[in-house]
Design goal:
alpha+beta; 2 domains; twelve-stranded mixed β-sheet; 17 helices
Length: 408
Amino acid sequence: MPFALFLALKYLKPKRSFTSVVTVISVLGVVLGVAIILIVRAVMTGFGDMWREKILSFKPHVTIQAQQGIITHEDKLCRKIEAVPGVLAASPSVETRVLAEFQRRILAPIVVGLDPARAEKMMPAMRMAAGKFDIEDDGVVIGVDMAINLGVRVGDHILIHSPMSVIKPDELHLPEELEVRGIFDAGQRQFDGDLVIASIGVGRDLLGMAQGATSIHVKTASPEDTKQFAPTLAAIRNAIGPDYSVQTWQEVDREIFNALAVEKNMMVILLMFTTIVAMFCVTNTLIVITVQKTDEIGLLKALGFSSRQVLWTFVLHGWIQCFVGTILGIGLAMLVLHNLQHLVDFLANFGLHVFPKSVYGLAQIPWRLIPSEVAQVGILVILFCTLASIIPAWRAARLDPVEALRKE
């Protein structure tokens, strides 16, 4: 074993002294710094994953609209799109904001009218909390939050007031009475409380349209795989021609993912100050040790040990602290993340709702730990702490053996 490593390990052995307590505190500082950074990054990554999953489950992967506003010959256009390799389903759609009323309770959801024959292919992963997915004729499917707010159950009839009553107030537009045949639970407030899925016929009636659609919704096989999604998108554009505009799911929800990315980066930058605090802990520990070991350092140098060996002794001393703290911090982060929902539920029993669905729009805390991010954090922390070890190690290496032994 190299002498520098041997001496560094010797100084790390606990001796029930003040130095050992300071060493433990500095290691704990590194542990907490690493754990906090990894937990925050994992949760922010989980947020992005869950938003992406919910969006891809409920929203179309590609939205097609006509330049003139209304799409005519929508069935023919859908057949052209469905013939494109990589397209799973295409459906004409009519979307509009409405007023929903039930027993004098009123909400303002969005009605999405789909072709009943294609609707289940458009939303294959929908989880039903009650009833079934049935939008034939006057049947509708609503979200669980909307059902709670309106006090609606499966089989009840709700009134849907057309926006045409506002657009054309001089005309009489009677509300549509629709039967709630299913209640879905997407686990996301945006869909559970603000979405009514109906047939395209209902959507046309609400907007006073005899035929046509406001858009075409398309589901593809690999919306997240750029290599497969890009050729499919190009083939769709070639199939429909230049008279239609095409928007992908990334373009429609660009603001959400950009905001998440910026927030994640800012949180990581701010939490890196925790690592800086841990770095100062390591520095202070080494300063205390070098002061206490002044006589030993002077004796070693008088016996012929080089300044380089002394320097590496204390650099390795700090590096070992950082390495141990990083490994323990990763383990602590994994432990907390795997029990994160239990911790949140436990705090909720005491009235501390740290993750309310009404604020975040998600039913539970999502997280995903990326191995490359774990490695990145570990390397940066070890690098910072190693740099923090250089100052006290350099001071120890420059000690004059004569002066050090004279003080003793």
